[in-house]
Structure formats: structure tokens, C-alpha cells
Amino acid sequence: MADIEIEIDGNLVNAKAGEILIAVTDREGISVPRFCYHKKLSIAANCRMCLVDVEGAPKPQPACSTPIADGMKIHTQNEKAKASQKAVMEFLLINHPLDCPICDQGGECELQDVAMDYGSDVSRFTEGKRIVADSDIGALIQTDMTRCIHCTRCVRFGAEVAGIMEMGATGRGEDLKIEPFLEEGIQSELSGNMIDVCPVGALTSKPFRYELRSWQMNAVSNVARHDLVGSNIITQTYKGKVKRIVAKDNESINETWISDRDRFSYEGLSHENRLLAPQIKVEGTWKEVEWNVALDFATRGLANNVFNTHQTDKLGALASNTATLEEFHLLQKILRSVGSENIDHRLNVKDLDNAISLESSIKLAGLEGVDHALVIGSNLRLEQPMISHRLRKANLSGASIDVINAMAFDFNYRLNSENIISPNQTAAMLAGVLKSVLQNAQVEIPDYLVDIKVNDVATQLAEKLSQSDNSVIVLGEHIVNNPQAASIANLVSEIAQHTNSTTLNVSATANSMAANMTGFVPGKGGLDVNAMLAADLKAYILLDIYPQYDFHHSLQAVEALSNEDTFVISLNSFKDDAVAQYSDVLLPIASFYETSGSHVNVEGEVQSFAAAVNAPSDTKPAWKVLKVLADLLELPGFHYADSTQVTSEVMHQSHKQHVHGESIDVKVKRGVNVIWQKSPYAVDVLSRHATSLQATNIGQINSASMNKATAKKLEVAQDDEYLGVPVAINEAVANNCVFVNANHSTGVQS
Amino acid sequence: MISNKAKKQIDAWVAKYPEGHQSSAVMEALKIVQAENDNRLTSDTIQAVADYLAMPGIAAAEVATFYENYNHKPVGKHTIRFCHNISCMLNGSDELITHLENKLGVKTGEVTPDGLINVKKVECLGACVGAPMFQIGDQYYENLTADKIDEIVDGLK
Amino acid sequence: MNEVCFKNLDQKDPWSLKTYEASGGYSVWRKILKGELTPEQIIDELKTSGLRGRGGAGFPTGLKWSFMPRNANMQKYVVCNSDEGEPGTCKDRDILRFNPHSVIEGMAIGGFVMNATKGYNYIRGEFMEPFYRFEDALKEAYDAGLLGENIDGSSVSFDLYTHLGAGAYICGEETALLESLEGKKGQPRFKPPFPANIGLFGMPTTINNTESFASVPDILAKGGQWFADIGVANSGGCKLFSVTGHVNKPENFEVPMGLPFKDLLEMAGGIREGRTLKAVIPGGSSTPVLTAEVAMGMTMDYDGIEKAGSMLGAGSVIIMDDSTCMVEALTRLAHFYYDESCGQCTPCREGTGWLYRVLKRIMDGNGKADDIDLLMSVQDKIMGNTICALGDAAAMPVESFLRNFREEFEYYIEHGKSMVKG
Ligand SMILES: Cc1cc2nc3c(=O)[nH]c(=O)nc-3n(C[C@H](O)[C@H](O)[C@H](O)COP(=O)(O)O)c2cc1C
Ligand code: SF4
Ligand code: SF4
Ligand code: FES
Ligand code: FES
């Protein structure tokens, strides 16, 4: 676009031909009132608030939809512009309830703000205001449609960003009504953004309803830790409690959106199940004690069970993948300081010799620019909503997306192909793809691929990859326990090397990247989690673990940890029966937003955050607890004044890399394969305790899906239980595969 | 919910539009489905049409509530759509509507107890040289008088 | 009279292909198929003819057709606007009923000129008789090998389909019509972009009124100059006027542009016995109302009507005699716009309801002294501030009724009853 010069309110401004006027005024800091315009949504030009005077145009022009041209003279404030803006303001207010004192948007309402500047005080409208009946659109969003100004931002958000058109504008004229069609409530995993885009109080946060006015709260920038993105958020707090979370712009991370999980999980913070006081187990009964007593009890336990007997190799440390970078670091440092390499966070992996190791080589923002994507083993939308959103954008601008999954999921974009195959065939399929890719590249075929038959699907997938200039291969969580997980990761890496492809590994979520960065995995001679549980360790330090959710071998885990001779120190933010059963000390720790720390996202970006609120009651940030524990153990090198010193220590360390095995197994396996996954709103302890999230349809997902043939083989029927989860017969699942999405604690995962 | 016959009719409309633009047929599809379901639409029938045309339910609902030719409340077997716009008004439509209401014993918007007829006031039907006029089904009736109305209405079965 | 669109009105089965061809129909189209006419020639003839869009805005048709990117390598469309819904307008219905082939030929010619191989005729949903007539004519044309792909072995292709509306005046607005054709509610699009660049299904599209298309074949058969000479300067040719309301013989008349209004009134049988002319809306409900005095001195052409203070619009002449209560008439029109606003943009959605409610309140006997100022101010705030011209169309009658017949409104407000009807 050519550079041109235009005149705005008498000042010369440089811009590009064809730019939309409001983008220019925004850039120049010239304020033009607007309601329907939103930089991330299509232009509607329906509110008419942004009318300005363009010299030569007979009518006032909307700044939001007027492309600029060289020499244009624009007046945003002259009499003609003002008259139009005032006129529109008056029209907007005649049917608006003006109940600002009781409106949840009070103080942050765009209408209220603009009305101050443009409205005339006395309304000449005496005809009786319109009242609009509200519909219940679900647990997360409160509607007050009498306040709606019909800007259709929410409608456009649904159709354009969420990718499912749920809200619509029905009726016409004065009866135009913004509403969803079905009464089931809003289904999108991004629905809460409608609250952010709504300029008035028509759509507000339901859990937050009537609580407070925005100006009463403190706003603290923060980072969400529920997935691999680390979306930027603002935690709004009042009297030491998180009251609401809204999105914070960060173009390269989450643009301007956040997932519902990031927005509403905070509700769990005030759940009655919080662990609030230190406890020790004396002769089988729990006793609340002071911190010093508990810590003393803990160090004595460690001394008795491992140090005094010189069995430091019998000490293990396990952590949840939601821990902060600093917590991972301190815990592994303690272990390594005393000489143990038994460190792990990969609790859900069945066979760690077969663990996935694959570097991500693409930036989040780069995802938008790919021309092709191959997604393997992921229900991406519900697992990594913002990553899925970026891919959707790529798709809308023409990228073709192929999927290899064990079950057909509801993608909100058009797939080029959706290949539903059993996990047992995934490696063989990718081997076929690799072989075909190598053939396309005229590269010699290695021995292990010589016997591989390349089927049509593999040929087509390879074709796409070979032809594309900028493709990404996404490896998802469902592969974690695939019998050939490591081989699959290696195949992906090989395919990427021989095509113009980057890779994106989303197989381990939350803050797993921080765990890798700090080396929170067994070192030389150390045991991995499964080996630890089998090895009769004498003591453990466990960081925020809920065994029935977190371990793959949950039954064995609880049993091993419950061993009489094993001394278990548990740092937990929530109470849990199994934890109480096997632990000897319970140390209550701060949860999300109650501690400072860092999240590392999938592209390796380290984002640090401060605590938004103080840790409640007797709880303490885990990094502090670990530091004090180290001090009590008289370990050197734990003199930190605050968590940022821990952070910089990590940043100055060389980061440990996994080395992956070379062997690639590409044979088709036999038997029924189970993909076990926590359901989208049960991924971590905080979201599990967020009651509103749990009340949504996504929150209710809890099923072991399988097709009829598999059910017959397993001798179960619809609504029976399989692995403690209700059976759902669903032909969308590949044969010989059970796809489990569990939203509650079970002890029977095998 | 959508009969095979209706599906055939809808398909004929779909064929008029470029591939991938089958939702262009939604307006006719809704009319066709309405005609075989007591001349009215429900959220179920709207959803069925949306599904048939592979479009979001809410998009079909927007259409169904935007255009005037769709009914969402019970109507009679015959709807008398009486124009009351300017040219018809100048030619006495208001008096004739009152005449019709009295004859049927129901107000506009109501259905006769036998479910046969309801009267709806509508805007200009584009037959102003024949004012006053109304429409029943596909048929326009122009240059109406009280007598002519009686005759037409008495003939409705 | 009745020289173009209505020229076969007195023939047997005027709508049939036979009748149409007997009067020279499809001769231009056949010339095109034989390669004897170029798009440039056609555009030149249209420009010479002075044909201006008959849908209301009066934009020169030849010029409009020249805007299409005819060489752009993508599907292009021609669309005919047969949504006729402006109160007082009923001419397109008769063209469709009595001369459907002229519309087909006009659209086909347009398709050729603009290199658009597909066309849609958007007919309002209530026009079932015209719809069936048009569909029959289409079938005749296809059967005669006049439409389709590579017609008659030429390189010319043109397929034509009908689309039915479902009851929304706003779909007459060209971009709302496109939305509707795409299976959406009829909400006008903001411009730019214009349909010539991004129109139906995102492709370049030209939209013309039924009468505009129907006029094209004869203009090209007999020459642009011939057509121009029928009319007056700046208003070429003849035009259909629907004369309705308080006249003895309401009818559609196809007459030369520039005809004195009083002659037209006479053709329609004049004002009813014992009554006198009070007011005239010359171009359909959206155009300003004129007093009898002004109207009687006006000629029926674009400039003549504009000089009188109104607009030719769609040529819908609504005649009101001295029995008309202007408050009631305006209230009815205000209700229409209130009912038909698509609701998309703020001034129209909120303003049309406001105007109607104030007028209704006056009619109910609860008028207030400052209501006239209020109405004036509200219409002024709608005017020019909306996405489409429906907002202006709602405002203009209010302004002109209040300006020309203010005393009737003042009387109603003061006495709680009509000055005319009591
Ligand atoms: C509210 C509104 C209603 C309209 N209704 C019609 C209509 O029914 N028929 C029509 O031909 N044009 C109608 N128009 C004008 C069209 O937008 C458009 O200008 C016309 O179809 C162009 O064709 P023409 O150039 O041949 O006149 C309407 C415009 C507005 C703003
Ligand atoms: S609910 Fe809010 S965002 Fe949606 S249209 Fe109304 S005002 Fe706009
Ligand atoms: S002016 Fe009225 S009809 Fe036109 S777009 Fe706006 S609301 Fe819709
Ligand atoms: S912001 Fe421009 S019209 Fe709404
Ligand atoms: S006003 Fe009644 S048909 Fe036009």
C-alpha cells in the first residue's frame, strides 16, 4: 500500500492508502467514539457512533468503515461530526435502561463513558422504554438484554472467532434481539470473550454478578497456567480475593482473547476444599499444627528415613505439571543437593522408556501463517484453545488442515481430511507418510521403512506436506500413551526435516515446559516416576499432586505411597482423601494467582508474574516452603530474597535437553488401546473446583467412548462403566480404541 | 420432520445457486417446511431446515424471524393478508378490515374458532392500482368492496 | 403511451414468447449471439438513451454497466430487482405479468455486456402470479435455445434463475437484496465496497430494476436517440407511473418523461366527484409530499419533480384529495418504516419507532405542544446518519408533511382530533 497524507482535524497525518480511518485515528491517538468497531472483528458499521465529517462527502462518514484516500480532509470534532455523534448517542440512550448504579458494567461501560462526553442530559423520549426478556445462556454469562445496544460484537465474535455461530440477531427493526437459538446455553470454549467484547452491561460474568464495581478492585497482570499458551490476563482482586479475570492484550501470545478455562477457573480458589493449615499425622490421626512444627516434623521424617540411613537414593520428588518454574527448580535442586536424581513430573505417562521427545519449532503467532497443518492425536480446540484459534485463522486464510485422530472431534474449521485410525496404526500410518515424503524428496529409504506399504491416505498426507511451503505438524496429548509414542515423535521429526514443516508438541500441557527447562526429570542413575513407585522408596516430597487424577498408574501409586515405611511430605493447595491416606505431613500451599512465579509456554517464552493476592490463611507459596525446607536441611545455595532470584538462576543455567532414542518401531500393534485424558475442565486442581465451569457442557464431559464393535469385545454396553467412567457408544471412535474423557477422580486407570 | 417431497422441492431450489451456497435456498426451504407443518415454524422445524442446508441453527432462525412471511404462532388454514398501507388506506382499507373482522367475529391476529381463517394487516403488496386489496395464499384480490369480501370469504373452505 | 414495457399490453397473451417475438423481441439478443453487437456499442447506446435507473435512485444505466470489471477473471452476476415494495409502487408486477420476456432479454443483454454468465431475478415473495409467469417465460426462453451455455453455438452463455423474497421491504435495497439472495436476513451492507466490486457471493455484480432491464431491448432495437427523444433533457424515454389513491381510474401508465402532472391526473380519470386535490406524493412513499398547487405546475421528469421539491423515485404517484387527514396518512407511513426497518443501525432502529410512537400518541389525542419540534428534530437526526437510504426515506415524509401541512398537526395536537375528519 502506498504512503499517503491525509488531514485530520487540521493536522497532517501519514498513512497507507486504503487503511480504515479509525485505525489511523487510533494510531494517532485521536479519539473517535465507537461501539460496534472491534479491531479483531469484521466491520459492521451499524452503531453509527463513529460518524465524522469528510470534506466533499454530503453525509457524515463512519470512521470504522471509510477507507482513506490521499488528500482526504477529515473533521472528527466539527459541528457536523458532533451533531451526528450526539444524535446517535441520543438514539442509543432512549431505550437504554440507565440503571448504571446497579449494572455490573458500571465504571467500565463504553456507553457510559461516551455518554458523558456526548449525551444530552434530559431525554426527550417519553414513549416508554423497551424491555427485552432475557434468556439463560448458561453458567458463565449473565444476560441483561434490555441493555443491549445491538452492536453485534458478540454475534461476530461467535461466527468469526469462536467459530460456532451461537448468538444471532433475530427479528428486525426495533425487535431486533441478540440471543442464542437453542436453550442449551453457549457451548464455545471461548465464550467468555463475549463478555469482554460487549461494550455495555448486556453480557457480564455470571460468577461475578453483583459482587463489585470495577473501580473497587485492584488489577494485577498475570499469566494463566492451564495450558501451553500462558495467556495474559488481568486478575481483578478485592480484599485479598480474586474476583474476576479478564483478558489482557498480548498480540504474540493470546492476541486479545482467553479461554473460558483461563477466565473462570479462579472460582476454585475459594472452594471449601482448600487445604488451609499445616497438618501432621501422629499415630494415624491428623493434627493441625504450626508451620514450624510441621516443617520440623518433615525434616525429621526425611532424616529418619533417608539421611540418617544414608539412603538418599531412596528419596523421590514428584510434581504436578502446574507448578511454577521456580517451584520445579527449587524442588529438583533440593533433591540433587542431597544426592538424589529421582525427579519427575510426567506422572501420566505409562511407559517412560517410550516417552515423547519433540522440540516445538514454531511460534504461536507463526501458526497463523502456515499454509498447511497436520494435527496428530489431539482434540486441539478443547485442549489448547488459543492454539486452535490460531490454526483456525490460518485455515480461514486458506491453510488446509489434515487430522489423524482416534476419534472424530468437533473442529470449528474445515478440515482437508480427518483420518480416524486406531492408535495401534498411527505409527505405521506416519511411517507411510514419511516413506512417501522421502520418495517425493528423492531421498534414500532407510531400512526400517523398506517393508512399509504406503496407502492412499499416507500418500495424500505426504503430498500435502511435500507441496507446502510452510507447514506445521502438531503432536497431541493422545499420543502420550500410544504403544509407539517415541517412534511417532521420531517419525514426526523425520517428516518435518524432509519437508518445509515446523513441529509443535502439545503432548504435555500446563507448565510442563518449565519442568523440562529446570530439568525436572530423572538425571543419571535416577528413577522415573514409574520406577520410583515400584522401587520401595523411603521418602517423597510431592508437589500439588492428586493421585487419582494425575498418575497413569493411579492405583499402584496410591498403594506405593501408602507403604508404612514411606515418609511422604505433601505440598498441596487442596484437600484430597488419597493424599491424606498416604501422606505424613501436609503443607498447605498457595494456588494460582496467590504466588509469584513463571510459566514457560510452548514456544519457550518465560513469562513471570507476581502474586495477585496473598496466600490465604496459613497457606504459603510453595517456592517459599521449599526454600525454608532446604534451609532446615542446611543445604547451601538457597538464599533467595524473592522468587525472581530463583527465576534468574534458572535463566542463567544451561537448559537440559532430552535425548531421544533412535529406534523406530513402525509395526501395527494389536489389541484394544485406551486413550485416557482428563476432560477439558478437569485438567488441574483449580479448574476442577471451579463450580461454574463444571456446570457447563464441556465441564460435564465424562465418558469412555467406543464404537459398538469395541464395546462388544470389551463386553460393555451404553452407560455401563468402563475404568470407572460411563460408556458412551459412539461410532466416531476408531475401532479397537476407547477414548476416555474423565472429569472426576477415579482409581482404576490401568 | 421434512418430508421427502419437501426435500425434493428444496433440492430444486438449492440447484439454482453455486456449489457451497446451498443456504441461499433457506428462505424457500422454510416456506416449504412451514407449508407442511400447519403453516408455522417451530424451533424444531427451523433446526431441521438448518441441518438440511448445513447452516447454523441460529442463522436459519435469523432468517425465519426477519421475514414477514413466516409464522411462529398458530394461524388459520387461510391467512387473509390485508394491505393497510397508504393507497389502500386512501381507498377505505381500514373500514373493510373492520367489516371483515366483524364478519369473522375475530380481530386481526386471532384465528377463527374453527381454525379456518385469520386476518393479518400487512404493508403494501405492490398492487396499489387495485386498492383496496388483500392476498390469500398465492392469490391477490383487488378492488375489494364489502360484498366482494363476503363472497370471497364465504368461498373459503 | 405504452411504447416500451407495455407495448404489447393490448395483444393476446402479451406475456408469450410468440407475442414478444412478433413485436421484435429477442432481435437484439440474436444479434449479440451472431456477434453483431459489442458491449461498447451497447453501453454507448444506453448512454445516448438517457435511461436512468427505474428503481428509485435514477442512476444512469449505461454508466453503471460500464463500471463492471468485465474482464476480471471471475464469476460475475447480473441481478434484477423485482422486490417492488415501496408503498404506491406496482409497475414491476405488471411488467413481470405482461412482458416477462423483456426482462429476460434485458438481463441477458446486461450479462453479455458485463461478461456475467449468471443472473438472478429477485421477485418479492408475495408476487406468486408474476413469479409463475416469469418462470413460464424462462422455460419458453430455454426451450427456444435463447439461454444456457454457449447459446446457439456462440461463445455467449447466460443462465437465469428466479429467487423469491419472503416479506421484507428492505430487500429492495440492493445490498440487502444481495444478502437475502445469499440466504441471510436482508440487512443492507455498508458501502464501499460497492456491488460492482464485491457483490453477490463476493463477486462483481450489477443490480437493476425490472423496468430498467425491460427498457433495454427496445432501446437497442430502435436506438438510444429514439428513446432519448421520447423524453426530455436529463430524463430520456418514457416511464411507468403508478397513479393511485383518490383518483377515478387508478392505473399504471407508460408515458413520455416530461408529461405535465395535470395530464397524468386526467389520464387517471381525475379526482373523484365533488373532491379537490389536496396533496401528491410523486415518487412513492419515500419521496416528499407536495401540495396540490405545486403539483399541478409540475412536469413528470427527474428535474421537473425535483424543481417542485420532491423526487421521481419509482414513479409512484399517490393522489390525496381534501378528505385526507394528513396526520393519519403520515402516521401510516411512519408505521411502515418502523415496521420495515431492518434494525441494524442505531438511528433508524431507534428513530423510526420514536417517530411512529409520537405520531400515534398525537392520533390517540395525547399530543403535546412541542411534539412537532420533536418530530422535526428526530427526523433530522436520522437523516444522513444511517447505513442505507431507508433511514432517509423514513425521515423525508415526516419533514415534508410537517412543513406543508403543519396546521393539521397543530390542530390535532391542540384538539385531540383530526381537522379533516373530526
Ligand atoms: C429502502 C429501499 C428500498 C428499495 N426498494 C427497491 C425496489 O423495491 N425495487 C427497486 O428496483 N429498487 C429499490 N431500491 C433501489 C435499489 O437500492 C437500487 O438502487 C436499484 O435497484 C438499482 O436499480 P436501477 O439503477 O435500475 O434503479 C430501494 C432502495 C431503498 C433504499
Ligand atoms: S449483547 Fe453486547 S456485544 Fe452483543 S450486541 Fe448487545 S451490546 Fe453488542
Ligand atoms: S437505515 Fe434502517 S433499514 Fe437501512 S440499514 Fe439502517 S436500520 Fe437497516
Ligand atoms: S464504530 Fe463505526 S459505526 Fe459503529
Ligand atoms: S398500498 Fe396496498 S397494495 Fe400498495
Please describe what this structure looks like.
The complex is a heterotrimer of chains A (750), B (157) and C (422). Chain A is α/β, with parallel strands linked by helices and 750 residues long. Chain A contains 24 helices and 31 strands. Chain A has a seven-stranded mixed beta sheet with strand order 14-13-24-23-22-15-16. In chain A, a hairpin with a 6-residue loop joins strand 7 and strand 8. The radius of gyration of chain A is 28 Å and the shape is globular. Chain A starts with a strand and ends in an 8-residue tail after the last strand. Chain B is α+β, with helices and mostly antiparallel strands. Chain B contains seven helices and four strands, in the order H-H-H-H-E-H-H-E-E-E-H. A four-stranded mixed beta sheet of chain B has the order 2-1-3-4, covered by helices on one side. In chain B, a hairpin with a 2-residue loop joins strand 3 and strand 4. In chain B, helix 1 runs antiparallel to helix 2 and helix 3 packs across helix 4. The longest helix of chain B is centred in the middle third of the chain and has 12 residues. The two termini of chain B are 26 Å apart. The mean pLDDT of chain B is 97. With 422 residues, chain C is α/β, with parallel strands linked by helices. Chain C contains 18 helices and eleven strands. In chain C, strand 8 and strand 9 form a beta hairpin. Chains in contact: A-B, A-C, B-C. The complex binds flavin mononucleotide (FMN), iron/sulfur cluster (2 copies) and FE2/S2 (inorganic) cluster (2 copies). The site of flavin mononucleotide has 23 residues of chain C, from strand 4 and helix 17.
